[in-house]
Amino acid sequence: MTALEVPGAGINLRSILDLGLPAHVLVNLDGTWIPAWLIGRVHCANGWIAQVQCLDPTGAEQTVRVPAERIALSTARRPGE
Question: Does a structural domain hold residue 14?
Answer without folding.
Answer: no
